[in-house]
Amino acid sequence: MSDPAQLSQSGMDLIKSFEGCVLFTYDDSITPPRPLMPGDACGGTPTIGYGHTGSDVVPGLTWTQSQADATLNTDLLPARQDVSDQTADLGLASNQFSALAIFAFNIGIGGFNSSHALQYLCAHDFADVPGAMMLWTKTTIDGQKVNSLGLERRRYAETQLFALPDGAPSPDFMAIAIAAYPKETTVP
């Protein structure tokens, strides 16, 4: 297994803007985040840093920014490795790779591997990849699949990164996504 490519700086800017960073353990079902302390009830998942979860995340834990950044890189590794393995012969630009790794990180490796985006990539049909990425904007609420404004914005930003030439300055991905998707859409 080869060492997968790193995310471009634009890719890191994008994922950090969408994941957000919280340097204390919090219950992800409560907005805005507040510290989750030992003995507190947790209705969601204990989370820290850039959306990190797992048995190492316990109530009362705090991190430094360096710990959050290092853990994000570690958490991204499986998605980076999978995208690298799946696209090794395609000659992707750094921002294309980064957009796909962020997409795979968010929808899961299984989702990425079964996605039309990967099918289009493997067929060298790069023009249809962004549209295929935009199909992944639904979340489940009360057992029903519904469009998520947050996922619409995130997918749009990922498609903008996919199209961004390497070396171009990073735009404010959150601002362009909010401008493109200012409010919830009504798609069945």
Structural overview:
The protein has 188 residues and is mainly alpha-helical. The protein has one domain (9-180): Lysozyme (Orthogonal Bundle), CATH 1.10.530. It has helices spanning 9-19, 65-87, 94-107, 109-113, 116-122, 129-133, 149-163, 173-180, and strands at 22-27, 46-49, 138-141, 144-147. Strands 1-2 form a two-stranded antiparallel ribbon. Helix 1 (9-19) packs parallel to helix 3 and helix 3 packs antiparallel against helix 7 (149-163). The longest helix is centred in the middle third of the chain and has 23 residues, at 65-87. The protein is globular and about 55 Å long.
Secondary-structure topology with pairs:
Blueprint: H1 9-19, E1 22-27, E2 46-49, H2 65-87, H3 94-107, H4 109-113, H5 116-122, H6 129-133, E3 138-141, E4 144-147, H7 149-163, H8 173-180
Antiparallel strand pairs: 1-2, 3-4
Helix pairs in contact: 1-3, 1-7, 2-3, 3-7, 7-8
